[in-house]
Amino acid sequence: MFSDLSLPLVLLIFAAAGAVVIFASIRATHLADTIADRTRMGEAMAGGLILGGATSLSGVVVSVTAASSGDASFAVSNAVGGIAAQTLFLALADMLWKGANLEHAAAEPANLFQAVMLIILLAFPVLAMAGPDVSFLGIHPVSVLIFLAYLYGVRLSSTVAEDPMWTPVETRDTRHDEPEDDTEQNKSAKRPAMIFIALVTLMGLAGWVISQIGGSFITRFGLSSSLVGALLTAVVTSLPELVTTIVAVRKGALQLAVGGIIGGNTFDTLFLVFSDVAYRDGSIYNAVGLTDLYWLATGLLMTAVLLAGLVLRQRRGPARIGVESVVMICIYASAVAVEVLA
């Protein structure tokens, strides 16, 4: 569709689609915060379930479209590359928060549990890629396990948020999840929810355009699917997470910022499930290469480092950011270097 268009026009459409995703996500962040207050859901849960899932929709469209066209590497690298990029965004957001380190100030049991759940979900694809090539109706059993584990994890996350068995130590830098306006709790969430759904639909359509142009880049320039997926479409479709994280941090909604990234990454593991269903040449896990596995390991390692930072709750580190943020930046930079030089 886009392969016959001139390169400047393709780049213009690509930039326009990215802009739509970004501006829609800015509005969606404010609405998610409002919905969290009016439903008493809490910022961490709203960030993980509502905002995280919504901002990931464009990425879902990219991976599913790539898988249905038979490009397994493009589909998987877009998913796992997005997880790594979005985790990096928390390190960048840490630089913007003027108080204590972001992971210290945003202490929240639900975010800790979701990080653990994300590590578990990321381990399943590793097992599938390293294990035997099996599938039923073209779907690997691991995809079913990921989907069921995700649903069960969401249920447990809600339990942890509503009735935590422990609470973080209070410090002067701890930021509490409190509504900005007490009157918000007495208002209906219907109207902001409807607008939110419309924005999500818009982001999904933009994701389809991005997937089509990403595929045309692979054929037009002879680029590897892994490179385009992990460093182009994954980053562009992850920009909503960067924007929403920055907006949330500037508003002081730190639990929403951290929960949005971790929850979005958790939802992103479902990219692999949907892609496996869309890929009709067998199991998608056994059709990818070592580079895709490398990006999966990168996301897994960065999540583990982030979890360590949330547990340690360091107040300050080098250059006013946490040590875990510095480590995450180094891990991601190393992965980019390996991808480009490979």
What characteristics describe this protein?
342 residues, mainly alpha, A middle domain of Talin 1, NaCa_Exmemb, transmembrane helix
Task: Compose a concise summary of this entry.
Helix content is 75%, strand content 0%. It has 342 residues and is an all-alpha fold. The protein is globular and about 55 Å long.
3D structure, described in words:
Its main location: membrane. GO terms for molecular function: calcium channel activity; calcium, potassium:sodium antiporter activity. Keywords: Membrane, Transmembrane, Transmembrane helix. By secondary structure, the chain is mainly alpha-helical. It has a single domain, classed as NCX, central ion-binding region (A middle domain of Talin 1, Up-down Bundle). The chain contains 12 helices and no strands. The chain has helices at 7-39, 43-55, 57-68, 72-96, 102-105, 109-130, 141-162, 190-221, 225-251, 254-278, 290-312, 323-341. α3 (57-68) runs antiparallel to α4 and α3 runs parallel beside α10 (254-278). The longest helix has 33 residues, at 7-39.
The tally of helices reads 12
Helix/strand order, N-terminal first: HHHHHHHHHHHH
Helix-strand category:
mainly alpha
- By CATH, the topology is A middle domain of Talin 1
The CATH class is identified as: Mainly Alpha
What would CATH call the architecture?
Up-down Bundle
Spans of at least 5 consecutive residues whose pLDDT stays below 50 are none
From the spread of the alpha carbons, the general shape counts as: globular
Strand content: under 5%
End-to-end CA span? 30 Å
Report the strand count: 0
Rounded Rg: 19 Å
Number of domains: 1
- Average per-residue pLDDT, rounded, comes to 82
Instruction: Report the helical percentage.
Output: over 70%
**Looking at this structure, what is the CATH superfamily?**
NCX, central ion-binding region
Largest sheet, in brief, is: none
